[in-house]
Amino acid sequence: MAREGRKSRAVTILDIAKSAGVSKSTVSLVLKRSPLVKEETRQRVAGAMDALGYVYNRGAASLRRARADIVGMVINDLSNPFFAELAIGIERALQNSGFVPFIANTAESVVRQAEVVRSMREHGAAGLILCPALDTDVAEISRLEARLPIVLAIRRIIGTRASLVVSDNLAGAARATEHLIELGHRDIAFVGGVGRMVVFQDRVAGFAGAMEKARLAVEPARTIESMPTKDGGFDAMKRLLSLDRRPTAVVCFNDVVAIGAMLAIARQGLTVGRDVAVVGFDDTAEARHVSPALTTVSVDAGSLGERAAQMLLRQINEGERRLESYVGEARLVVRESCGADFKRRIAS
Amino acid sequence: MAREGRKSRAVTILDIAKSAGVSKSTVSLVLKRSPLVKEETRQRVAGAMDALGYVYNRGAASLRRARADIVGMVINDLSNPFFAELAIGIERALQNSGFVPFIANTAESVVRQAEVVRSMREHGAAGLILCPALDTDVAEISRLEARLPIVLAIRRIIGTRASLVVSDNLAGAARATEHLIELGHRDIAFVGGVGRMVVFQDRVAGFAGAMEKARLAVEPARTIESMPTKDGGFDAMKRLLSLDRRPTAVVCFNDVVAIGAMLAIARQGLTVGRDVAVVGFDDTAEARHVSPALTTVSVDAGSLGERAAQMLLRQINEGERRLESYVGEARLVVRESCGADFKRRIAS
DNA sequence: CTGAAAGCGCTTACAG
DNA sequence: CTGAAAGCGCTTACAG
């Protein structure tokens, strides 16, 4: 009935050694798959482990080796499918690396983020992949980055020299805006996102650049900030639609904002794509699945995650600091929400 | 330039002790906030920690105390918002418990699940919250459950005596079905989910029970299995719509399946709610956000997660085995996809 | 391949 | 409050 857990005395390599009639050292060699041990001995030891229900104590090993096999992934919003896909990509890349990823969700709280990071360091994390929460302090990142390998993902923070994996926000937003302009739109708004985020600034810059190139006005009143969530997008779009002159198209901060915006448009009795064109950013699985399907900028969250993981592994293994940056391609994926279809039907 | 990480010699309590002019024991007492240490000493020690950049080594502490402060959460599909919400609820409940949750995603692979569980045990997890992957072996759970505190969440597995947090699948599905029957539907199908999952069996049983109570036929050909994903739901619905006689309503295995099904219906040129009524199960945030809004069975993933966490904490703290079960209420939330609205408009 | 010894950083009694 | 000692379970040389 009693559990054999950490409570009662655990089975150790010494027990295994006795049971298999070898020394502690030999068991340790078996554990690390050393070729020094002959097959027959190896099997005897493995048999003893099975029989006694041995569980390797990584804590003890880490303590001795002064290095643990975990890496932390700190995610700012796990309920956003984009970050869930990112996390899954990171996990995939870590699969056979000898490191296990531990995920934590900060829910955009810097306080929570500090706790989580501290906890991961206390557990001996060999490195961190960090998607910084809103309003993360530059100094905090710099301090961290001096102490352990770290890769910043998705959200750039100005003033740090940490390794970085982001997507090409400027080009992506520009491309999305150009597409709307090509479709004939002149009155285009930017919806969602928080002004003090660098990602927001980059995307707005891409948007404004494309507008200016086409000699179109960028009115400050037509850039509506919001939390980068579905509800945020819904509210922002509602506000935008309540203005006296409504835009014919909107570039949204990201997909969840765009989906929220689409709902606000529908709620208003308008048709997405015909009355108001919508484009998103991220290309999460949801973008394909909503109706009308969302035209968006694809950044491939999964492969960004893989990149970040590989970058972190290099940094951990090479010991000394080696900073890299990767800017993932941002590719426009035209579906229905931009109304390209409606235009075509009218033209023909 | 050099990192102070685990590579070079780490700062230990001995360094702190020297720097603060106290003994190692005193530092340890400060660490655990013992009232034995007077405030002035405490501050001196805390100051030294700050100055030297001390990081508590939990691995060493766990080793000595033979007990770690982590609990594992093993999730079968983190890309399903339902499980993401569950995970967030678990995290919330663990916030001030002294335990930190480590999440891992098995992506429905039992092989991956075994690896992940082993890794968590090796790291000394004090307990596990497990959402079993498809086809998880009963024997494996039983073995595990004899060795450490464990709470099974969401997916019941027949034959184990482990603690359990699930929702009332039978009643929920019955309620959803009854609602469709009240709306006048006679020809109702069940869409999505994998037949060998107990959750599926429970929900189908609820569905069939309600049908039989209304003396309606349950045709096996009208129970279409699929992976419990959006794509699965899409495919299943497509198959269902290709039958000669199409049902007027469908009860879906869960929300992601329902949303996939809604897309298949729309793709077919039909209108959800008017041509085919749809109800889901879970009430994820997405259910509110799709259009038409999904009528579904609310089970409150977040609070199920909290329950599971509390149950696990009790089990860990009380030392000996104490099995509990919690069956969360399943409440029908009527929105638009069931067509209640259309019916009303016709009636008036 | 094996055995003995030391040590990773902490906590736990225990005596003062 | 403090100090000295032992020990958690492992790995790491090192000598055989």
TrEMBL record, chains A, B:
The GO terms describing molecular function are:
DNA-binding transcription factor activity; transcription cis-regulatory region binding
Q: Is Cell cycle given among the entry's keywords?
A: no
**Listed InterPro entries:** HTH_LacI, LacI/GalR-like_sensor, Lambda_DNA-bd_dom_sf, Peripla_BP_I
Q: Which UniProt keywords apply?
A: DNA-binding, Repressor, Transcription, Transcription regulation
User: Carries keyword Oxidoreductase?
Assistant: no
The cross-references to PROSITE patterns, in alphabetical order and at most eight, read: HTH_LACI_1, HTH_LACI_2
Which residue range or ranges hold the HTH lacI-type domain?
Answer: 11-65
Q: Which domain of life is it from?
A: Bacteria
SUPFAM superfamilies found in the cross-reference section: lambda repressor-like DNA-binding domains, Periplasmic binding protein-like I
Q: Which residues cross the membrane?
A: none
Check the record and name the PANTHER family matching this protein: HTH-TYPE TRANSCRIPTIONAL REPRESSOR PURR-RELATED, LACI-RELATED TRANSCRIPTIONAL REPRESSOR
Its protein name is: LacI family transcriptional regulator
Organism source for this protein?
Bradyrhizobium manausense
Traced from the root, the source organism's taxonomic lineage reads:
Bacteria, Pseudomonadati, Pseudomonadota, Alphaproteobacteria, Hyphomicrobiales
